[in-house]
Amino acid sequence: MKRRTLLLAGVASATLPFSFARAAGYPTMPVRLIVPFAPGGTVDFVARVISDPLSKALGQPIVVENKGGAGGILGTMEVVRAPADGYTLLMVSPSITGANPAINPNAHYDPVTDLTPITIVAAGPTMLAVRAGFPAKNYQEFIAEVRSHPNKYTYASSGMGGILHLQTEYFKSLTGTSITHVPFRGAGPAEVAVTAGQVDMLEDALPSMLPFVKAGKLVPIVLTAPARVKELPDVPTFAEVGLPALNHMSHYGILGPKGLPKDVIDTVNAAVRRAVNEPNVRQRFEDSGAVVVASSPQEFAVDIKELYTSLRKVVAERHLKVE
Fold first, then answer.
1. CB neighbours of 173 closer than 8 A, spacing ≥ 6?
2. Check whether domain 3-124+249-317 has CATH 3.40.190.150, yes or no
3. Which among 28, 69, 298, 322 could disulfide-bond with 74, CB atoms 3.0 to 4.6 Å apart, if both were Cys?
4. Is 3.30.2350.10 the CATH number for 126-246?
5. Taking all residues of the chain, what is their mean pLDDT, rounded to a whole number?
6. pTM of the entire structure?
7. Is the confidence at residue 162, as pLDDT, over 70?
8. How many CA atoms lie within 13 A of 29 on its CB side?
9. Residue 134 pLDDT > 80, yes or no?
């Protein structure tokens, strides 16, 4: 099953009735939810939106702890090494489940075998956009322009080896285009460089890019979403332009250590579904541009495997390394 289908299945399942059966004796004390990044990013936002309603559903506090460092590796490894008892969980993005372990030899974990999928809480679309003044205003013009001028244009990313870097390299691989990478220290500086006209394009989270589109500083080209978004009705999805492999939204989900018992997995999964069905929680996600998913553990496992496999292939084929 393709990743786009998995996310759609998850979105549908979040609206279905479910029974909440708590694992016997779990939890009996607070649960740590590790965010492997500094406060303020999307992963941190998702963790903090879900923490209070999840605490209520589980009957124990959910303590969000930011454990940043090494691009998310330090916090991730803390969970990899934690006891498989359900009291130390990990909030992740595609950087943790795909990009970091695919390109960084210092990651020292396999997202498929060293962690236990519980659920994708929410997913968010990303968008490829170009600077104002770029000689293309839609996807057909864009792809013709970059194919006609190999290495003439540049793209910004949030850093070497990050998910935004690998996603664009995957796009280049599938389209046979040559665009020069310009890495920055974070998505914010990358966006500033493109809106200032210093770099030609970037792919980033839709919510952070929309204000620049509305201000006329970015021109939207194509996006990842199950369907066109209401804010940009004329912008096609990657699936529409013949690139379904790229049409996957960024997942934000919960993992546990390897060997997490099934009853604990099921308890946390059901609690998340209860939490995201609270109207105020769903509204906070939707207001941020995200879509509530609440997938099954099995759906999340397939999603991770497909992402990790595809990014490892991109890294190998394009001889990418962390510098």
1. 314, 317, 318
2. yes
3. 69
4. no
5. 90
6. 0.81
7. yes
8. 5
9. yes
